[in-house]
Design a protein that fits this description.
By secondary structure, this protein is mainly alpha-helical. 47% of the residues lie in helices and 7% in strands. The protein is built from 15 helices and six strands. The termini are far apart.
Length: 397
């Protein structure tokens, strides 16, 4: 039986990359290479990828800018205008923080931007020269954004990251234009809709709501559930509620997420739940908690993005009641509220209770939300109250 002869490898065959995200490509000539606009640039021997990468970080910003790279001064030398990805992101976040303090940027949007920024720095080496960020890096960011997250959340991170990088380019932090690549596109709207349908209805049914209330939530959680059912409140809306927001059986606030006016008539059951919660309200220990309606057991204000106590308490209640699915939290009661009010013709009054942005027409430029009479808001509240408490046969047809 004839022996199979293996062909010896080429003497100058290129090795593999030291890690998958390494920016340079090995060339059979024994050097590390990268191509820009059809021109190949070489950065040193394949036997020393560390030194080659240092030279690449030094030279590449100048190459992209169409300039001749100056000689390196020492092993760790970098160009004078070198800005790491971490430094670039921090420049952006500092601006957002300043605008937040001026009241221009809402806390929730700032928090969302910070979350996206952390994922960016997790996907790409924070020490990378910002000028060297290319399409392959945006592909890595998209992969990080997608881990364990829905398509809608993936879309939100991509949109926010594009806003971050656009700001950095517009502000002159980066000289070269950004090339996101086709793989950094947002998910198709059709795919997002299909995923949403597969998840099913997020709203609680009337029977599920009564099971939750019968499972004996603590006085604070009961008040929060009643706010969700009565006027579509979510966990952070509850965290924003002030002691003086309830006036003569009505809520009149500006929703933090949108900044739009929010007004709603409260049920007697909701007012009683709020009174019971207020009677057992912990003593405030921090200045910013003195006016907050719901505070922590340590007397501090519930911080945005840290409504874990509310979320976890509701999850335990849901488990006791034996209703709902994973991912259905207090916010699902807001879904129930809006689903029920969808039957009403008075869309303006419903949107006002939700704190939603009004339709974009000239009417909203001239007509104040305060012109919506209490009777219209009471009609909305009565409709949901009848569905939930009084008319057991409502909506069964």
């Amino acid at each position: 039986m004839a022996k199979t002869q293996t062909k010896p490898p080429r003497k100058n065959a290129a090795p593999g990359k030291p890690h998958p995200s390494f920016e340079l490509t090995p060339h059979p000539s024994g050097r590390w290479r990268k191509i820009h606009k059809g021109v190949a640039y070489y950065f040193g021997s394949i036997d020393d990828h560390v030194a080659a990468h240092k030279k690449f970080l030094h030279d590449w910003p100048f190459i992209v800018a169409g300039k001749v790279p100056p000689p390196m001064q020492g092993d760790n030398a970098k160009p004078e205008d070198y800005t790491s990805l971490r430094d670039a992101i921090n420049i952006f976040l500092d601006d957002i923080e300043e605008r937040h303090e001026q009241g221009e940027v809402k806390h929730r949007y700032r928090r969302d931007l910070e979350h996206t920024a952390r994922l960016i720095l997790k996907a790409v080496d924070p020490a990378r020269d910002f000028e060297t960020i290319v399409a392959a890096d945006f592909k890595a960011m998209r992969a990080e954004f997608a881990k364990g997250r829905s398509l809608q959340t993936l879309k939100n991170h991509i949109v926010r990251s594009r806003s971050i990088f656009k700001w950095l380019v517009d502000d002159g932090v980066r000289n070269a234009p950004l090339q996101y690549g086709r793989q950094f596109s947002v998910p198709r709207a059709r795919a997002v809709r299909i995923e949403r349908r597969r998840k099913g209805d997020r709203a609680f049914t009337r029977d599920e709501i009564h099971a939750l209330l019968d499972a004996k939530p603590n006085v604070h959680l009961r008040a929060q559930i009643m706010l969700a059912l009565n006027c579509g409140y979510g966990p952070e809306d509850c965290a924003d509620l002030h002691l003086d927001d309830v006036d003569h059986g009505m809520l009149e606030v500006a929703r933090t997420k949108t900044g739009f006016c929010r007004r709603a008539v409260l049920w007697s059951e909701t007012l009683k739940a709020l009174d019971d919660s207020l009677a057992k309200r912990p003593t405030p220990t921090a200045d910013d908690a003195k006016e907050a309606f719901f505070i922590t057991t340590k007397g501090r204000r519930v911080q945005h993005g840290k409504t874990y106590a509310i979320v976890q308490a509701f999850k335990r209640l849901k488990d006791r009641a034996g209703v709902g699915e994973d991912g259905q939290g207090l916010y699902a009661c807001r879904h129930s509220y809006r689903t029920c009010t969808d039957e009403l013709v008075d869309r303006g009054a419903v949107d006002l209770t939700m704190g939603w942005a009004p339709d974009k027409d000239m009417r909203n430029t001239y007509v104040s939300p305060m012109s919506v009479k209490r009777a219209r808001l009471k009609a909305v509240a009565d409709h949901v109250h009848d569905w939930l408490f009084e008319k057991e046969d409502a909506g069964d047809d």
